From TrEMBL:
Residues 1-20 have a biased composition (Basic and acidic residues). InterPro entries: Actin, ATPase_NBD. SMART domains: ACTIN. It comes from Podospora pseudopauciseta. Residues 539-559, 607-623 have a biased composition (Polar residues). This is Actin-like protein arp8. It comes from the Eukaryota. Pfam families: Actin.
Length: 752
């Protein structure tokens, strides 16, 4: 046995163990994760989110700039002037600047007929007609056929206006007589004859210009030659008052029609976008007094967009405000949300009757319920055109009226505002007069009588077939394609809703079918290949169960459903359309009339989906892509009676909750210029009570709160939204340069 060697011997031989403090490896030691106390700060700090990080950096930069400006001002005044410190600290102790100054925030509400804009600090907006006039070889009255459309070469009124429309008009007149008699109203049997005979023999009275105290001041186009580039176009009221016989000739351009960008009248996309930019630019300079574009960097902008919008339209407005106008920040708000802000409601069904579109949406807790949104393509402009058409049918003395002419359009709007009503108490044969003031012509005074035209025209809201809807879809998607998903280029990305889909399916049921049945299908029920919905909106509303579907187990059976074969999935319930007939919506049964239509129709339809299984047979239905479905939906004009559309919107918002149905029916708010027709809200309330007699005492239709003008409620709500101290929906120029239009996804308050 070898004895133990002493340490002295080891040290002498160089074998002593020493520790120099070096690790075995330079790789860091990673301690194991404690699963009982696991924590990470990924995406939990503000500096990890780009938008919040940029906001903090902007606040810091403003603090630095304010300090520099303060020091510079103190040096220039030699310390004699005491400067306020309000700019350095806000109410919450944080940085404050012109960003929170309402006078530095511009609120814009573009529409089909009017543009409303102003500063957030203003009590009311400035209203400008959404039109601009530029030099052109022809005027719009020379380029397009006359409105209302009629055949001037025919002699009889039925032939001029079309026999189909004439029958609808006569039926509406007879129905009104029956209704008035039921309401104990006095109806003269020869009322129509009195009107027609008087109007036929009426001759105008000529009034010289020096005897007309209300002569219209027409736009002097000679200022165009002397005004330079700033006066290259006329906008708003000036454009509408350019004489039709001016030299040189001018044409009116309307960038927005029917709630969409106007692709019908514009030859190119560049021309359309340029006119939209020019109109907004001139409005800022002439109406808001922002003459120098260098000052615009100090201003922010809030833009009001429709509830059902085109993403290309939103992105174009964002591009204009950030890149062209160089505003510091931009925010978006939907019309229904803005209306509730303006009226002070937390929950409401907002009915916005515009000039050329009527939108309906239910708002709860300040946010729009997605599946309740409906956009109908008729409005106050259709009432004006139909009112003139009905009076022309009854031998209106001014038979040459053409709404394409500027002075005739202004006259028609004046007549509608003065005489149209929805109160049966005001329906009688009455004698009226109007003055026709045309440029370079003496004033003509006409006497005329009218009877039921004043109520039948606005009643078109409840029977849209009386309107002229034949050209509203002309050249749709001709210049601007729909938006597609960034990750799936064949998947349409524009917002949809179950309520809007129900309206379209009521008109054309095939818009909900993603399969085309094979001509010789002999398989058993349930064998038809049905695909799983993907990348589409949530299922449309359905009150009843799915027991009536062809591929499901009968409701009386106690056996479980068999497992689906390959390629077969659960069918999607049909969209709910209030009051749909039994033949509508893929043959589904109609709602019960006893309870006002509460039950939803049964039946199934398929949304854009994945492909069938890989073994196609001759009996298998053909698959329709999401793009095909979107194309077909774009080819259907969404029109429906207003009361039916409101009930459809509310039922899709409530999703079977009867309590929420009662709450929404009790908080219906009508806004927009179309709602200014006298007795509009009470008439709508009567129609809704007839639809739901079981909830008569719950239904309430109100106008805007605080006796505010219905036309400006939406703008006023957006100005309130702009002044909120805590608002994370602002999009800055830096964010737009980094992310482009994708920043809208992260900023808006709703699901974009």
């Amino acid at each position: 046995m070898v004895g133990k060697v002493s340490e002295r011997v080891l040290a002498r031989e160089g074998l002593e163990r020493t520790d120099n403090g070096m690790k075995q490896t330079s790789w860091p030691d990673v301690p194991p994760i404690n699963q009982k106390n696991y924590y990470t700060d990924y995406m939990k700090r503000d500096d990890q989110i780009l938008s919040l990080r940029l906001q903090a950096e902007a606040n810091r930069d403003r603090l630095v700039q304010n300090a520099k400006d303060r020091d510079r001002a103190l040096n220039n005044t030699n310390g004699d002037v005491t400067l306020p410190v309000d700019d350095l600290q806000g109410e919450d102790g944080g940085p404050s600047s012109s960003y929170m100054d309402p006078s530095k925030i511009i609120v814009i509400h573009p529409g089909s007929q009017n543009l409303r804009l102003g500063f957030a600090s203003d009590a009311l907006p400035k209203t400008i007609p959404m039109v601009l006039a530029t030099k052109y070889p022809q005027t719009e009255s020379e380029m397009y056929e006359a409105l209302p459309r009629r055949k001037f070469e025919e002699r009889g009124m039925d032939q001029q206006h079309g026999e189909e429309w004439s029958k609808k008009y006569q039926k509406a007149c007879n129905d009104l007589k029956v209704d008035m008699r039921q309401n104990k109203r006095k109806v003269l049997p020869n009322s129509k004859d009195l009107v027609v005979n008087f109007n036929r023999r009426t001759e105008p009275e000529i009034i010289s210009q020096h005897n007309d105290p209300l002569q219209v001041e027409w736009t002097d186009v000679s200022t165009l030659e002397d005004g330079g580039s700033e006066s290259a176009v006329f906008i708003g009221h000036q454009a509408q008052r350019v004489p039709d016989d001016s030299n040189p000739k001018f044409k009116l351009w309307r960038p927005i029609q029917n709630g969409w960008l106007n692709e019908n009248e514009y030859p190119t996309q560049a021309h359309l976008f340029n006119d939209l930019e020019t109109l907004l630019d001139r409005a800022f300079r002439w109406e808001l007094g922002l003459k120098k574009s260098t000052e615009w960097k100090q201003y922010s902008c809030v833009i009001i967009i429709p509830d059902l919008y085109d993403k290309k339209y939103v992105e174009q407005l964002l591009h204009l405000c950030i890149e062209w106008f160089e505003f510091s920040r931009v925010a978006f708000i939907q019309e229904s949300m803005a209306a509730t802000f303006g009226a002070g409601y937390t929950q409401a069904c907002v009915v916005d009757c515009g000039a050329q579109k009527t939108s309906i949406a239910c708002v709860e807790d300040g946010l729009c319920i997605e599946d309740s949104r409906i956009n109908l393509k008729f409005g106050g402009w259709d009432v004006t055109e139909t009112f003139i058409k009905m009076m022309l049918y009854d031998n209106f003395p001014y038979q040459e009226i053409n709404l394409r002419r500027r002075y005739d359009f202004l006259l028609a709007e004046e007549l509608k505002i003065k005489y149209c009503t929805l109160s049966q108490a005001n329906i009688s044969v009455q004698n009226y007069d109007f003055h026709l003031r045309a440029p370079n012509q003496p004033t003509r005074k006409y006497m005329f009588k009218c009877y039921d035209e004043v109520i039948l025209a606005p009643m078109g809201f409840y029977d849209p077939s009386i309107f002229d809807n034949s050209h509203k879809l002309d050249k749709r998607r001709h210049l601007i394609d729909r938006s597609y998903n960034a990750y799936d280029v064949d998947m349409p990305d524009d917002p949809t809703s179950a309520a809007q889909l129900a309206i379209l399916a009521h008109i054309q049921p095939s818009v909900t079918q993603t399969t085309i049945p094979a001509s010789s299908f002999t398989g058993a029920p349930g064998e038809m290949g049905m695909a799983t919905p993907s990348k589409e909106r949530s299922n449309p509303f359905n009150f009843l169960g799915h027991n009536n579907n062809a591929s499901a187990t009968p409701g009386t059976s106690k056996a479980p459903s068999p497992a689906p074969d390959a390629g077969v999935s659960t069918p999607v319930p049909a969209p709910y359309m209030f009051g749909a007939s039994s033949r509508d919506l893929n043959g589904s049964p109609a709602p019960s009339a006893r309870n006002g239509g509460t039950p939803a129709p049964n039946g199934s339809f398929l949304l854009p989906t994945t492909s069938f299984d890989n073994n196609p047979t001759s009996n298998q239905p053909l698959q329709r892509t999401a793009k095909d479905l979107a194309t077909e939906r774009d080819s259907v004009l969404p029109v429906a009676p207003l009361d039916i559309a409101i009930m459809t919107s509310i039922q899709n918002a409530a999703k079977g909750d009867e309590k929420k149905v009662r709450e929404l029916l009790g908080s219906i708010m009508v806004v927009g210029g179309g709602a200014k027709i006298p007795h509009f809200a009470p008439f709508l309330e009567e129609r809704l009570r007839a639809r739901r007699p079981d909830l008569q005492d719950k239904i309430l239709v109100s106008r805007s709160a605080r006796e505010m003008d219905e036309q400006v409620v939406v703008w006023k709500g957006a100005s309130v939204f702009a002044k909120l101290a805590t608002n994370d929906s602002w999009i800055t120029g830096g964010e737009y340069k980094v992310l482009g239009s994708r920043c809208v996804y992260h900023k808006v308050l709703w699901q974009y």
